[in-house]
C-alpha cells in the first residue's frame, strides 16, 4: 500500500498509525470552576455541566461554541464512552495531543493520571478503570495560569491583548482519542536516517514486557518492513529479549534498476515502514510509519541539505486561525496554509512559539516544506521556569524527532525567558545546557539557541531586523565582521553575540524581517504602514533583495504568513485571503541572487 493509503484523515499521529482507534473529538460537557472547588465537591465523579464544548477547540474560541475570552484558571470536561468485552480484553490507551497547561484525568471516578505541559502529547492506560457498557465516564480537569514561568508562547498573561501577545489558550486544544492495544505492544520507535551510507537506524521501545525466563519463553518477534512505491526494499526480524531494541537497515537493493531515494524540497520522497510485533505467529501490534533519507549539516559557514548548500527562504508562521486560534479548524486549513506558503516561493517555515499539529508536519514531510521547530517561551527566569521549560522541551524533541521536514530546533527566541542573557552567566549556562541536552537527543540537526540576537552557543547565527529600507539594510550589514563581532548594534540596539562568546564561523540568517502592514486603525505592523499595493510591493522587493544581495547570509525568514488578531502584518489576512498577488511575492522570492552560501 502507498503512503496515502495508510494515512487516516483526522488520525492525530500520522507517523505512528494503528487501525484500531476511536476519535473522541466533538461534543463534551463543560464547566468553569474559577474558585477551584470542583475536586473538593467531587466533580471527578461527574458534574453538572453549564456548557457544551466542541473539543479540541478551547472555550476562548468561536469554534468551541462558547467564545468566552476572559481567563478562567480551572475548567472541566466530561463525556461517556462505550466499552465492550473485546475492548476490555486489551489495553485501552487514552491519548491527548495537547492540553494547556496541567491535565488531571479520572475514569469512572478513579484517578488515571496527571500531565503538565501545554505543548507536549501524553497518554494514560485506562484499562483498569473501565467496565462493559456505554456509561464509562471520562472527566478531565485542566488547570491554567497567567504565570510567566510556564511555557506560554504568544499567549497573553494580562487581561487584554497587547503587543504581539494574543488571547490565551486554556484546556484541550489538540485531538483526544482512544487506542486499543495488546498487553504487549510497540511503544515508540526513533528513526534516524544515515544519509552518507544509505541506511536507516531504528531504536524500538516496547511496552508490557516482563523480563527473565518468562520473556525468553514467549518467543516474541519484531519485524520491520521498509517499502517505497509499494515495493518491499528491505525486511528484517528481531527476537525480542528486552524492552529496548535497535537495528540498522541498508536501503540499497539487489535490483539493478533500484535507486536509493533522498528526501528534499524538490523531491520529497518518503519511505514507508511497517512494524509488526508477533508472538508464535500471532500479531500483537502493527504500526505504520514513514521516514525520509536526508541530512542536515553545517560546514564552512553554510547550511547543507544532503551535503549541498541550501538557501532557506522561510516565512514566520504563528499558526493562529480566526475562529479557532491555535487549533487548526480542519485538515484542509493546514493544507491550504502549506500550499499558499509554497505558492509564494517559500521553501520553509519558522513555526513561531508553537508546536504544531502532527498533521501539519506530516503534510510538510509529504510536500517538502522545511520547518524550524520553535518552543513556546516562558517570560521569567527562575528555578521553576527552568525546570518546566526543560522537561517540556525534551518531550517535544523526542516526540517530533522522526519528521524529515524539521531541519532546525529553536528553543529560545529574542531572549524571552532569558532577558539578561547578554551578560548574566546563569542564563547563559542555561542556554548552553539546553543546547547540549538537545544535541544529546538529536545530534543531527542544527540548534539555534536564542533566535534573533545575543547568541551564546549556537549552530546558526540568526538576526532580526525590521528595517524598512533596503538601502539601509545593505549599509548596516555590508561589514560582516562588524555585525558578528558586536562592533555594531542592530534591531533596537541588540548585538549578535552575548558577552563572553565569540563568532565561530557559523552560517548567518536574517530570521525575522518585513512585517509590512497596510494602513489600518485596527492593528499594527512593523514600521510605517503602506497605503497601496505598489508601496507594499516596492518595500517588500527592496528589503528582500537587499538581504539576498548579502553574499554571506544563507537565508531569511519573512514576517509573516497571516494576520493574527491585532497584528495585521501578514501576507494573508486572518481568514487566509492574499493581500498581494501571490505570483508577485513568488517572483521576488525566486529572483536569483547568487549567495556565497550556495557555492
UniProtKB/TrEMBL annotation:
Signal peptide: none annotated. It comes from the Bacteria. Residues 22-142 form the Glycosyl hydrolases family 2 sugar binding domain. Keywords: Glycosidase, Hydrolase. Residues 297-587 form the Glycoside hydrolase family 2 catalytic domain. Residues 184-294 form the Glycoside hydrolase family 2 immunoglobulin-like beta-sandwich domain. The keyword Amino-acid biosynthesis does not apply. GO terms for biological process: carbohydrate metabolic process. GO terms for molecular function: hydrolase activity, hydrolyzing O-glycosyl compounds. Belongs to the glycosyl hydrolase 2 family. This is Glycoside hydrolase family 2.
Amino acid at each position: 500500500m502507498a503512503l496515502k493509503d495508510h494515512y487516516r484523515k483526522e488520525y492525530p499521529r500520522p507517523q505512528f498509525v494503528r487501525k484500531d482507534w476511536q476519535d473522541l473529538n466533538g461534543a463534551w460537557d463543560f464547566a468553569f470552576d474559577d474558585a477551584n472547588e470542583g475536586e473538593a465537591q467531587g466533580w471527578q465523579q461527574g458534574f453538572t455541566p453549564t456548557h457544551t464544548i466542541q473539543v479540541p477547540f478551547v472555550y476562548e474560541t468561536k469554534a468551541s461554541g462558547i467564545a468566552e475570552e476572559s481567563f478562567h484558571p480551572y475548567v472541566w470536561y466530561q463525556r461517556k464512552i462505550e466499552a465492550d468485552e473485546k475492548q476490555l480484553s486489551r489495553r485501552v490507551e487514552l491519548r491527548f495531543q495537547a492540553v494547556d497547561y496541567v491535565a488531571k484525568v479520572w475514569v469512572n471516578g478513579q484517578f488515571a493520571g496527571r500531565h503538565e505541559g501545554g505543548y507536549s502529547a501524553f497518554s494514560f492506560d485506562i484499562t483498569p478503570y473501565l467496565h462493559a457498557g456505554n456509561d464509562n465516564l471520562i472527566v478531565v480537569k485542566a488547570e491554567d495560569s497567567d504565570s510567566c514561568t510556564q511555557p506560554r508562547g504568544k499567549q497573553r498573561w494580562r487581561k487584554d491583548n497587547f503587543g504581539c501577545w494574543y488571547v490565551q489558550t486554556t484546556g484541550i486544544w489538540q485531538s483526544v482519542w482512544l487506542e486499543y492495544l495488546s498487553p504487549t505492544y510497540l511503544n515508540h520507535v526513533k528513526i534516524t536516517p544515515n544519509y552518507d551510507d544509505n541506511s536507516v537506524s531504528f531504536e524500538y521501545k516496547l511496552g508490557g514486557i516482563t523480563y527473565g525466563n518468562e520473556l525468553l519463553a514467549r518467543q516474541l518477534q519484531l519485524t520491520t518492513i521498509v517499502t517505497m512505491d509499494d515495493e518491499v526494499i528491505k525486511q528484517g526480524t528481531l527476537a525480542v529479549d528486552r524492552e529496548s531494541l535497535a537495528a540498522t537497515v541498508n536501503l540499497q537493493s539487489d535490483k539493478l534498476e533500484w535507486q536509493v531515494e533522498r528526501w528534499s524540497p524538490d523531491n520529497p520522497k518518503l519511505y514507508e515502514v511497517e512494524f509488526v510485533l508477533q508472538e508464535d505467529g500471532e500479531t500483537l501490534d502493527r504500526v505504520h510509519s514513514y521516514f525520509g533519507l536526508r541530512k542536515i549539516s553545517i560546514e564552512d559557514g553554510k547550511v547543507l541539505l544532503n551535503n549541498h548548500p541550501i538557501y532557506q527562504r522561510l516565512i514566520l508562521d504563528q499558526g493562529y486561525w480566526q475562529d479557532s486560534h491555535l487549533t487548526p479548524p480542519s485538515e484542509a486549513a493546514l493544507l491550504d496554509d502549506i500550499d499558499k506558503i509554497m505558492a509564494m516561493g517559500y521553501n520553509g517555515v519558522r513555526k513561531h512559539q508553537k508546536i504544531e499539529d502532527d498533521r501539519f508536519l506530516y503534510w510538510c514531510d509529504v510536500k517538502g516544506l522545511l520547518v524550524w521547530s520553535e518552543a513556546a517561551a516562558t517570560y521569567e527566569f527562575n528555578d521553576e521556569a527552568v525546570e518546566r521549560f526543560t522537561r517540556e522541551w525534551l518531550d517535544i524533541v523526542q516526540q517530533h524527532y522522526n519528521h524529515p521536514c524539521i531541519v532546525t530546533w529553536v528553543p529560545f527566541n529574542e531572549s524571552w525567558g532569558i532577558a539578561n542573557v547578554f551578560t548574566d552567566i546563569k542564563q547563559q549556562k542555561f542556554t548552553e545546557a539546553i543546547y547540549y541536552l538537545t544535541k544529546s537527543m538529536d545530534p543531527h540537526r542544527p540548534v539555534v539557541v536564542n533566535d534573533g540576537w545575543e547568541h551564546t552557543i549556537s549552530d546558526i547565527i540568526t538576526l532580526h531586523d525590521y528595517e524598512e529600507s533596503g538601502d539601509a539594510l545593505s549599509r548596516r550589514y555590508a561589514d560582516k565582521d562588524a555585525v558578528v563581532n558586536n562592533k555594531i548594534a542592530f534591531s533596537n540596539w541588540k548585538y549578535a553575540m552575548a558577552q563572553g562568546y565569540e563568532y565561530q564561523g557559523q552560517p548567518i540568517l536574517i530570521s525575522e524581517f518585513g512585517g509590512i502592514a497596510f494602513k489600518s486603525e485596527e492593528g499594527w505592523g512593523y514600521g510605517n504602514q503602506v497605503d497601496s499595493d505598489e508601496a507594499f510591493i516596492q518595500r517588500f522587493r527592496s528589503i528582500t533583495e537587499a538581504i539576498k544581495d548579502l553574499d554571506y547570509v544563507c537565508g531569511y525568514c519573512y514576517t509573516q504568513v497571516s494576520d493574527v488578531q491585532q497584528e495585521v502584518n501578514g501576507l494573508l489576512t486572518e481568514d487566509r485571503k492574499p493581500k498581494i498577488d501571490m505570483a508577485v511575492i513568488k517572483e521576488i522570492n525566486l529572483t536569483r541572487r547568487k549567495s556565497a552560501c550556495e557555492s
